[in-house]
């Protein structure tokens, strides 16, 4: 089944090496991986290699809901790009590009069929915006 791709992006005022590290280091991931202030990421595991897996626990701060966002890496090009497949077989690719000392991140991911595309785009973009804010203020 062909899935619709959703695209999000941001420009971060930091070099690629710093952005790559913050994006993939579990200690950093727990600091930025949430779409809104009432959510958090209490734990993160990341085996950044082809065939390696990641698992980030996403949880409402009030304890009302939690889930694991997890997948398996299908491609890893350090400080350039990574691709992964989620448990429901959706795929995502994240590209990191130097833009005169800043870093352009472009993410393309398969839409899921439960929620409207704009809701999915807004949620993933909110997490990416949280990441940008974290890196630029670190």
From TrEMBL:
Highest rank taxon of the organism: Bacteria
Pfam family, one: AHSA1
Domain Activator of Hsp90 ATPase homologue 1/2-like C-terminal positions: 13-136
Signal peptide segment: none
Protein family per UniProt: Belongs to the AHA1 family.
Official protein name in the record: Activator of Hsp90 ATPase homologue 1/2-like C-terminal domain-containing protein
Source organism per UniProt: Sphingobacterium humi
């Amino acid at each position: 089944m062909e899935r619709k791709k959703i695209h999000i992006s941001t420009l971060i005022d930091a070099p690629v090496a710093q952005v790559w590290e913050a994006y993939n280091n579990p200690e950093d991931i727990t600091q930025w991986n949430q779409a809104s202030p009432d959510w958090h990421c209490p734990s993160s595991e990341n085996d950044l290699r082809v065939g390696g897996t990641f698992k980030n626990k996403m949880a409402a701060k009030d304890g009302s809901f939690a889930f694991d966002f997890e997948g398996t890496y299908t491609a890893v090009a350090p400080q350039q790009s990574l691709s992964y497949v989620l448990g429901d077989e959706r795929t995502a690719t994240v590209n990191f590009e130097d833009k005169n000392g800043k870093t352009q991140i472009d993410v393309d991911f398969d839409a899921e069929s439960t929620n409207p595309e704009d809701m999915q785009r807004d949620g993933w973009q909110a997490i990416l915006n949280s990441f940008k804010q974290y890196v630029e203020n670190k």
